[in-house]
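Structure request: Helix-turn-helix domain-containing protein, Anaerocolumna jejuensis DSM 15929.
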Amino acid sequence: MENLHLLFQPIGAYLSDTTSNVMSYGSPCSLLSPYISSYWGTEGLTSEGSVQEFEPSLIIPDARVDIIFTVDHTNGIVHSGFCGISDYPDYAWSIRERSNMSRFAIQFYFWGAQYFISDSIANSYNAYVNIETCFSGWETFFEKMLLNVIDFQERVKLTEQFLIEKMKQNQYNHNVMNALSNILHTQGTSSVKEICNHTVVSQRQLERMFKNYLGISIKKASNLVRYQNLWRDIAYAKIGTIQDAVDKYHYVDQAHLLNDFKKFHTMTPRDALKLAWQ
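Returned structure:
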């Protein structure tokens, strides 16, 4: 399989390191890195007064999907869910949690989850669903592991052992991955017709495959990839003027680019930069 993750590195709305004292992050091993972007969660348990109040955080569509676990160690309960691919921005509001809580999450690239699912993720688009809907049998393992293991790095280690056992290479869909390769190589600028021509598959067939394996349409996948590449160029000053971006990413004009960016980011590129590095 082509290492698509080398072609696409999405970023969030915030680029300054303002959450390192609250959350821990871990990178996947080389075997899992083509599918998994990262692991994230709390380092240890919350205690009385340890959870700070934050301003609501902007969550932009980053073409990644997450399995999120919230662990109540006092009552021995693990709440879990699968956050499917989203194509609209949202805000995460801080909630003062009770003490003796922890969180842990697995973050996949939007094409990566297909190698682990037990059923289609067609109904996960813009949704938060029970993990058993797509990952049958996972709740039992993670409930036991997360209640007994507190250390973040140890959680990552045990999770990776579990994921390697669950990985299903036979679920590789050549047509979907070939189409994704085209989308990522062209940074989301290929038309649906061009993508279908590249795969030599009819649009109707390919759309059905995308929905089953990725939970999203061809056009929406392309738009997300284009937006994320545009945002990375803007954030890291890799592009000159807005008109340069219009030309590079095949927008009709500057108004088209700005409207598209605001749809995903809620604000103009200039305001997004101010927020990103605050």
